[in-house]
Amino acid sequence: VVVRGKAAVPTLLVIRDGEITFEPAGELWGREIPETFDALKTKFGGKRDVGVSAIGPAGEKLQRIASVMNDRYHAFGRQGFGAIYGSKNLKAIVVSGTRDIPIAKPDEFKKICKAITDEYKKDLSIVARFFAYMGKPKGWLGWMYRLMTRLGMKVQAPTAAMRRMWSQRGTTAAVALSVENGDAPIKNWMGVGSRDFPLAKKGMKIDGKVVDKYITKKLSCGDCPMPCKGIVKVKSRNLTDVRRPDYETIVGFGANLVNDDIELVTACHDACNRLGIDAVSSSATLAWVCEATEKGILTAADLDGIEMTWGNGEGALLLTIKMGTGEGCGAWLGSGVQRAAEHVGKGSDDFAVHIHGGEPAYHDSRFTSLMGVTYIADPTPGRHTAGSASWNETFGAGFSLPNAAEKKDWNVKWKGTEGKGKAQALHSNAHQAMNGLGLCMFTMLTGRLPWADLLDAATGWGMSDADILVCGERIQNLRAAFNRREGIVPADFKPHRRMLGEGDGHLEAGPLKGIRVPLPVLRDDYYGSMKWNTTSGHLAKSRATELGMADILDGYLD
Ligand code: SF4
């Protein structure tokens, strides 16, 4: 769906059985996400009949960190798409249909789906049970988590154990572990998790085991056999029917701000989803506020009376609400860390950690260098879900299209730089193919699915793993070409020194002590594997011809 131009008044775009209509948003403009969804579902149909993608007050006010919420609970958070909806006066897109989706080989498709579901649900062996148990963080194992990072030891749990763990806890299973082993950058990329937010005393207070206590209902996308999400209730905050916070939110509003109150973290998460702002960008901006306050650059007078110091969870909640509503200091904080620093001045841009305005997510490039490459080399900077070999680099996740590449090309060591550009290109192209197929990213982490078989049963196209990978490469090239058309060049995506382990980002304690990451070298290696010119970003004409893209990319070729 491509929406051009801007409606004269706040509008709903309604697509029913392929028929497109525009309806006035009326009183829905200004409403928060839950009310908006309830009203649209009542008007257009029940959960099974209608899909809704909508913005909250933040998107309407063009806050640059505004998200789009899908089907009430699922945030499309990064890159400010909510503001794009808002700029078009588009409150929501409503989609419904009554026709069947044609399946080329229905019996075969059902058979594959059943086999996958059975595999996900089968009983675990003793070994898998042991791994599923050990995979959940333990307060007494901090020494081991830190040591594994120091030594670059990858331990891959059996597929069945990963799936069980993911069904039970989803991303929350990784919170305390990641704060302790250095995966989670904290205190605006200056802190050391194991020192500033110790596992037993603080880390475990925001881990999945604690979050579990608030869950009232498991939640999944469609009929997924690995229901990794949940709905929570927090009595003390009067929160009901709230999507369970996940890894990024818990780290962002928790350890990152030195806040160990999971109920406040959940309240911040609820504010993000109700008002429609991105939890990564908003919490990263708050970490920058804390540092600016610590340095005496910002005071309570600048923040509508809020003294935003490290550990002030109540302050974080108030400021999150302001970012979402755009009121008071929220008007400039809601533009994200880069523009907030421009607004404040006084040298505060020096510690504004972003890449071309995109705040990096909560996976530290000093821990996983290839996530750092994704942050600075993917066309959408700062995102952790844009495709990376990071999961292979740090704990040995396999390649989802195994017949399309040799293991030596997609499998890398945790430490060092050897072969990483090629692996990054393979994994990120596969990731784009996965997005194009409408599959879930977590299937890349929790054991391979038969993509080619599923696709063939659904469409009859008969594509191989290699064909699918080429499609992913084409998609990645189109995404990159979008930036080239807009005049963005590779040098615009600069990593902050803290992401490189340089200057005050050169940590003196913890599992990442002394680590420096040659991100520019790794990025150039990735560019080389993609056949992209490191200066212009243009694709080599010879590769464009092989991909059948020479015409469409004309003007953006090397
Ligand atoms: S599709 Fe993915 S994100 Fe959705 S419930 Fe399943 S594993 Fe979780």
What do these coordinates show?
The chain has 558 residues and is α+β, with helices and mostly antiparallel strands. It has three domains: 11-96, Aldehyde Ferredoxin Oxidoreductase,  A, domain 1; 151-351, Aldehyde Ferredoxin Oxidoreductase Protein, subunit A, domain 2; 369-547, Aldehyde Ferredoxin Oxidoreductase Protein, subunit A, domain 3 (Orthogonal Bundle), CATH 1.10.599. Helices cover 43% and strands 8% of the residues. The chain has helices at residues 33-44, 57-60, 81-87, 106-121, 126-135, 142-151, 159-169, 175-181, 193-196, 208-212, 247-253, 262-275, 279-294, 313-325, 330-333, 337-344, 369-377, 390-395, 407-410, 420-437, 442-445, 451-459, 465-485, 497-500, 519-530, 541-547, and strands at 11-16, 19-24, 50-54, 68-70, 74-76, 90-96, 215-219, 229-234, 239-243. The strands form two sheets. Strands 2-1-6-3-4-5 form a six-stranded mixed β-sheet. The protein has a three-stranded antiparallel β-sheet with strand order 7-8-9, covered by helices on one side. A hairpin with a 4-residue loop joins strand 8 (229-234) and strand 9. The longest helix has 21 residues, at 465-485. The mean pLDDT is 95. Iron/sulfur cluster binds next to loops.
